[in-house]
Design a protein that fits this description.
The chain is an alpha/beta fold. 41% of the residues lie in helices and 11% in strands. It has 2 domains: 216 residues, Periplasmic binding protein-like II (D-Maltodextrin-Binding Protein, domain 2, 3-Layer(aba) Sandwich), CATH 3.40.190.10; 210 residues, Periplasmic binding protein-like II (D-Maltodextrin-Binding Protein, domain 2, 3-Layer(aba) Sandwich), CATH 3.40.190.
Length: 461
């Protein structure tokens, strides 16, 4: 069955009106309880105009299962954004979030236990799924039409394998951020660095002041190691440049190319420098064992000054933490090494289906629409979410920081590149790249040794 795509301005206007209604009806994210303590309240979805969803037909009583790596606290907002679709179509969306997603999805597919839909955060893993399991179903025409309208050609390309379009983008993120405490910087007289050299000089100054500047953690269950790959990718963009980055992710140059080894050395200059790390946790080897989602926490008690993490780290701070230029924490752009260049590392999830039942195609199409993007923005009252969907009304985003991220995604001067490990074959990007970065810290493996081992693991076909 083909789901008809929405083309009318009336429908799009309805989606915008729905998002605005959600915003108006959402409780404040800083309400107080009976004791006067600050609480975080989720938005509530009010009654909506279900005519927007008439195109999907009668789907009452059907179910769509979703498997994803998106877990709490973000899971609540994800599920809430499905409410209009569920209410108006009669479809029940069964959500399963797992920190073991990357390791378990292929296992489930090979065992014949596929979900209806999965949110795949690695185009390289999508390619592996398509080529090795044959389980993925090409996206329906309606989904493709939405992506053609609301996303750039490059974003559609990330969801395409061997010329067939499978997976529409969902959320997007920017990883080129460094988190810090504005009040601690002001008290110490530190300026936010705008160049790489300034950032290193600031690190040295913090050491001279008797403190450890950086905190980091790469532990993440079966996915341990991925935060370190983000560090490497960001530095490759700055050391080797976007063109070499593209050649690296597609294996036109080997993983152990001298430019990549140099980039690993540059990462080591910060993260394997005993004077620089690991504030609040221990020495260099503690990075491998420190959980990624709590690695920035020492910033709040003054034990750490800087922590490199993506925009979605906004939701990892304890409840009540104010994310603002004059708040408890904020983030600055990870500086370029070359004047006039602005490389940005980012990522996102892609909605791939493993069944072509009408309700599955309908949900896949809804998630690719401007309607869903605006509902998702409106219900994400805690912030920490953006999308590359051009139909997104940035005014619906929860925070100035989210709007900053949206502006960076749309900045024509920026050189955006998708997360490199996510573009590589799954056995590398979600395999040896992760494990070798663990060895980089836990076993003090050298840059050359790490690069050589990953290169040796690259599939020959």
């Amino acid at each position: 069955m083909r789901i008809a795509t929405r083309r009318s301005s009336a429908v799009l206007a309805g989606g915008a009106a729905l998002a605005l209604a959600l915003t108006a009806c959402a409780p404040s994210s800083n309400d107080t309880d009976d004791d006067g303590d600050m609480t975080t309240a989720a938005a509530e979805v009010p009654e909506i105009d279900c005519s927007v969803y008439d195109e999907f037909g009668d789907l009452d009583g059907t179910t769509v299962s979703v498997y994803t790596s998106i877990v709490e606290p973000e899971q609540e907002d994800q599920e809430l954004s499905y409410d209009p679709f569920e209410e108006c179509t009669g479809v029940t969306v069964q959500y399963e979030g797992s920190r073991e997603f990357e390791a378990q999805l292929l296992v489930r597919l090979q065992a014949g236990n596929a979900p209806d839909i999965a949110y795949v955060p690695q185009p390289g893993l999508l390619s592996t799924i398509v080529n090795d399991t044959g389980a993925a179903v090409p996206a329906p025409d309606a989904t493709a039409a939405n992506v053609d309208e609301y996303f750039s050609e490059s974003w559609k390309g990330y969801g395409t394998v061997d010329g067939t379009f499978y997976a529409a983008p969902l959320g997007a993120n920017i990883k080129s951020y460094v988190w810090y405490s504005p009040s601690a910087f002001e008290e110490a007289g530190y300026e936010v660095p705008t160049t790489w050299d300034e950032m290193i000089e600031l690190s040295d100054q913090i050491v001279a002041d008797g403190k450890i500047p950086w905190c980091a953690g790469i532990a993440s269950g079966d996915a341990t190691g991925w935060p370190a790959t983000d560090w490497v990718e960001d530095v490759v963009l700055r050391v080797a440049g976007p063109d070499a980055y593209d050649q690296w992710t597609t294996h036109e140059i080997p993983f152990n190319d001298p430019q990549i080894v140099e980039s690993l050395d540059e990462v080591a200059n910060i993260l394997k420098n005993e004077d620089y790390v690991n504030a609040g946790f221990g020495g260099v080897d503690s990075i491998a064992a420190t959980e990624w989602d709590g690695a920035g926490a020492p910033i709040l008690d003054g034990n750490c000054s800087m922590h490199r993490a993506a925009n979605f780290y906004q939701n990892q701070w304890p409840e009540g933490t104010e994310v603002a230029e004059d708040g408890d924490v904020y983030a600055f752009y990870l500086p370029s090494m070359t004047e006039g260049e602005k490389p940005i590392l980012g990522g996102g999830e892609f909605v791939v289906a493993f069944d072509d039942r009408p309700e599955v195609q309908a949900f896949q199409t809804y998630l690719s629409s401007a309607d869903w993007a605006n509902v998702k923005a409106a219900v994400t009252t805690r912030g920490g979410w953006v999308s590359a969907n051009t139909g997104l009304d940035s005014e619906l985003l929860a925070t100035d920081f989210d709007r900053l991220s949206a502006d960076l995604l749309a900045d024509p001067e920026a050189e955006f590149r998708f997360d490199g490990s996510d573009l590589m074959p799954g056995s590398v990007g979600a395999g040896t790249f992760w494990s070798e970065m663990v060895a980089f810290f836990a076993s003090d493996k050298s840059s050359q040794e790490v690069a050589d081992a990953i290169e040796a693991s690259w599939p020959t076909s």
